[in-house]
Amino acid sequence: MHDNAIHYIMFVYDKSGERVCSVMHGSHSGEYMANITKVKLDYPREYLTSISGYKRANGDDDINNAIVQSLTFHTNKGRHGPFGKETGKYFWYPSTGTRSIGFYGRCRRLSTP
Q: Which UniProt keywords apply (predicted)?
């Protein structure tokens, strides 16, 4: 889900012919459930080659404190996205020559002053 930031992300994939759903990571309630965007790859003919996006430019360059504003999924057939707001500091994570690209991160609810 996205508007001015990525609120949550979830993956559905095929594992030996069975559909597997990941848990939703992030805040996924209320108004955020109304704006879900689905990306479907034409697997096995289409696969991820890189991921890019923007993180909030908050003066802290530590990726552990990043708020992801936008995501774009790049494949061998094109791109899906951008999803979210393309502002802040740009990032790009290319694959290392394989089809698999993993995700690692954490989520937490932000408090406002």
A: Lectin
Residue 104: inside a domain: no
pLDDT digits (tens, 9 = 90+) for 3-53: 577 878 888 888 888 999 888 777 765 555 556 788 889 988 998 888 999
* Residue of 95 and 51 predicted with greater confidence: 51
Assess whether the previous peptide bond of 82 is cis (omega < 30° from 0).
yes
Structural domain contains residue 100: no
Domain holding 54, by residue range, is 8-94
* This prediction's pTM: 0.75
CATH of the domain at 40: 2.100.10.30
- Overall number of domains in the chain: 1
